[in-house]
C-alpha cells in the first residue's frame, strides 16, 4: 500500500509542477518556434497546409520506392555472398529482426488497449 501512496504523491507533485510551470513552458515553446507558426491561423490556412503536406508526401513516394529498391538490392547482394558474411554482420541483422518483431508485438498490445490477453476461441 505504501508504494501506491508514493506513486500518488509523485503524481500529485508532477501535476502541481505542470499546473505551475505549464503555461510559461507553452509560451516559451511557442516563442522559440514562432517561425513555424502561420499567421493568420484560419481554417482555410490549416486546410491548405494539410493538403500541401499530403501531396508533398505523395510526391516523395517514388524517391522512397527507389531507396527501398536500393536497400533490397544490397540485401540480395549480401545474400548472394553470404559465405563472406562476418558473424558481427549476421548478429546485427538478427538483432534488427528481433527489434522489428518486438515493435510489432508492442503495436499489437497498444492496439488491444494495453491488454496482454490471448486470442479468444
Automatic annotation (TrEMBL):
GO terms for cellular component: mitochondrial membrane; proton-transporting ATP synthase complex. The keyword Metal-binding does not apply. Keywords: ATP synthesis, CF(0), Hydrogen ion transport, Ion transport, Membrane, Mitochondrion, Transport. One of its GO terms (biological process) is proton motive force-driven ATP synthesis. One of its GO terms (molecular function) is proton transmembrane transporter activity. It comes from the Eukaryota. It is found in: Mitochondrion membrane. PANTHER family: ATP SYNTHASE SUBUNIT (PTHR12386). Belongs to the ATPase g subunit family. This is ATP synthase G subunit family protein. The gene is 11406014.
Amino acid at each position: 500500500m505504501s508504494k501506491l501512496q508514493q506513486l500518488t504523491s509523485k503524481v500529485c507533485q508532477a501535476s502541481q509542477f505542470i499546473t505551475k510551470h505549464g503555461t510559461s513552458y507553452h509560451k516559451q515553446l511557442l516563442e522559440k518556434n514562432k517561425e513555424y507558426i502561420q499567421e493568420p491561423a484560419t481554417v482555410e490556412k490549416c486546410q491548405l497546409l494539410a493538403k500541401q503536406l499530403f501531396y508533398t508526401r505523395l510526391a516523395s513516394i517514388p524517391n522512397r520506392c527507389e531507396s527501398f529498391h536500393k536497400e533490397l538490392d544490397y540485401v540480395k547482394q549480401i545474400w548472394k555472398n553470404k559465405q563472406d558474411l562476418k558473424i558481427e554482420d549476421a548478429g546485427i541483422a538478427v538483432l534488427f529482426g528481433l527489434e522489428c518483431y518486438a515493435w510489432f508485438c508492442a503495436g499489437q498490445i497498444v492496439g488491444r488497449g494495453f491488454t496482454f490477453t490471448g486470442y479468444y476461441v
